[in-house]
Predict the structure.
Amino acid sequence: MIKAVCFDLDDTLGHYASDFGEFVAFVRNELGLHQCDTNVFAKLVSDELRRDGPLTFELILRRVLDGLQQRAPADLAELASSAMASYAADYRPLPGAAELLSDLDSRGVKLALLTNGPDDMQRAALRALGFERHFRAILVSGDRDVAARKPAPRIFGLAVTALEVLPEEAVMVGDDLDTDIGGALDYGLAAIHVGPPTGPVPAAAGQAADLAAVRLLLSGLLGG
């Protein structure tokens, strides 16, 4: 019997509704890096966003500036905080997300969020959605107490420990076949892929076109 559900965040429960390239260009301009090619800056930021270990957006910018041999401005922390506020302002829930979480929460299902990315960026996005109250555990790879990106076993282990369930009593819902679905199945969780698959969906995983379909699949797993 499934007792807990773990959710991914980006492109599972919510998404950035604006052009991320424009956001990165805005940050470049705020840093005064007008001589740095936009595409070069975007590539550097993208590479840093995928780093393992403790991570914040301020740390990303500091590393990018170091790589460009540029001095970090004295107000870098304030600039990063302002950028996160701008990012969160354009973060939106996906259709059915609020209803699904409310339904599961009202039924007493234990919920956790497992997301890769900078700690401040992912928490700002989650606050913008207003979904924090539903989760007993929020695990962000950039949090220094987590410091592991899906599909690393550590983040799934932390989730089931926080939810006080066995791996086989939990299901992971996410859009990425490798990090969400593969990582969950390898650790012993059930898994439901949501959205158009980018490759073969493992036979052991469920497949749902959207969150309404996820709700139906979970209803069956939870016993109606």
Notes: The chain has two domains: 4-15+92-221, 20-89.
